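The instructor's notes for this session suggest beginning with a concrete chain rather than abstract definitions. Hand out the sequence below and ask the class to guess, before any prediction is shown, which regions might be ordered.
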Amino acid sequence: MTIPADLETLAVVVVRGGELPAGAEETVAGASGSALVVGSQASEAAARLEAAGRIWVLERSCVAPAALAGTLAPALSGVDMVLLPASPDGRDLAPRLAGVLGRPLLAGAVRCAHDEVELTRLDDRLSLLVAVDGPVVVTMRPGAGGRSEPAVAAAVTALPASAGPAAGPDAESVAVLQPEPCAADLAEARRIFGGGGGLVPAGANGAAVMRLLAEVAAALKAAAGATRVVTDAGWMSYDRQIGTTGVTVSPELYVAFGISGAAQHVTGLGAPDHVVSVNTDPSCPMTLMADLGIVADAPAVLAELAVLLGVTATPAARQEEASHAR
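After discussion, reveal the predicted structure:
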């Protein structure tokens, strides 16, 4: 392979069928636009990398982590900081690369500099600043860096296929299954329906309302998230909380039901491509920042969507069921 030996930082993006994994753009931006795209239909995926200014492409049908690490290690040995998105393939490959290259692995980074990496732990309640004084491998959390500015047209170099010794025993891929949208990691979700306190009418069963939100979102191949008001009330789990004290996201579409748009929540949104706000207040921050503002009662809009999508149980019906169960 012909990766420059004096390259300081390089993003390694593993693709399948030409699909870029979540976090690819942010990782490439963190590597100052230098990227190695490897996998099946890698050229098609590389053409969609907006943050890249310089790309190396390696077409490879098999992306088993041990074999791939053995192939890439000689070319990456001179790169000081190797960045990978913390996608499933990135998380599989990173420790193998770190092992064969004999360097530390810093997993779950939210910010990278040449001399320091910021990691988060304990559901983002703890931030760790790790000094970097030598070669490292780093995985970057999807959604942590927001969207990057598009770079100029990238220079693309195709690398010849080669194979090195596998870095230890390898995993055998039986099948690749996509997660259910409602259960997908929010940081990796491309569509998100968010619920706020304004989605729960007075006296209603908030947990039932949020279950309906999740089912409507799933019917539209989206994930469900919430504000801190909702998670503190116990209506949705804390791993679905979006904001400075929750998960940072950067979806293509964010639909906010009954969310006013407090700074603590909006800060965690990154830079969605499109925002839709459903709220009775046309002047609330969320509606003002939205591409489409629907000035209407959020519970009524959600109930109507449920009927149109065939999700028949309404919040009132769910509340009645819950009361009968008690």
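Then share the key points. Confidence is low (pLDDT under 50) at residues 314-326. The chain has two domains: 9-158, 181-325.
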